[in-house]
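Input for the complex:
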Amino acid sequence: MLEAIVLIFLCQLAGEAAARFLGLPIPGPVIGMVLLFIGLQLRRTWWPTSIAAVEIPVGVVAAFLLGHLSLLFVPAGVGIVSHIPTLTAHGIGLVVALVVSTLLSLAVTALVFAALSRRFERSDQP
Amino acid sequence: MTRIETLWVYLSTQPLLWLTATMAAYAMADRLSRLSGRHPVVNSVLLAVIVLSIILAMTGTDYRTYFEGAQFVHFLLGPATVALAVPLHQHWALVKRSLVPILGALIAGSLTAVVSAVGIGMMFGMPRDVLASLAPKSVTAAIAMGVAREIGGEPSLTATLVITTGILGAVMVTPLMNAMGLKDYRARGFAAGVASHGIGTARAFQVDPVAGAFAGIALGLNGLLTALIVPALVRWFW
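Predicted:
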């Protein structure tokens, strides 16, 4: 379990280093995610008979972290409470923009996904 | 000073107090969310934030002192982002098969998020720096703040808009998808990730593992796409 935590931290560290070193606009943890993903894919390619990733320690640690992902946003959420007046400082416009834009982007994303999936996936899903 | 007051003065400056308060408030909020059958309005982030804000206001604690303790929880956002690799790997066959819907929905959703927010802002006659802060509001805070800075926005305003968007998306996604009759958890999760980044993704993981995996992909891809297209859109059209 300890090694799994170290591995996840190492991926993030390598990601942070790569982002800084190459001047990429992507956060280090996102690069770290790609690195861990590549590692897991290689593992499956090289040892196809090994147990599933969710059962190895990295999978267990990941499931724990993602199972409580909501908790991790609480400190940032508390941080914006004092900034809520700035949301109405420009009138009701910002609130309207956030609500309507979030509804629209949720709806458009899901509808396009569903439409394309009906159109393009029939052939390989008999 | 009484002994109780002395004790409070000591504890209130220790990280342990606010770390414990954060986890306790969340544990309580999560329990309520479970009891409500994960009802969208009983959102665990929203509930914990409200409870903690009331406690901070009542005890006259400033955010800096609070964050001394809460930072240990906040820090785990990075490792949790790395951990998204596991569900991505686990559902990779499904992801590969869904490549066309993923890319199409990503482009459509990402553009809708940016254009609709800026468009509505313009209708309300908002100044340019506010519009620039608003444009990247659907992506994860680290990327959104970088994009806002690059196009002349205010990163701290962007952070507020990002978190608010996340909570709005997490609350609205389930009722909206049910109203539209969309049952495909890939589409539902992907939409949550595109429109409302990590907080939407956290909601998706509470509802369904496949929705969570697709929300995680959407969060990463939309972060990438927004970082690339928003500065370009600004250069071309603004």
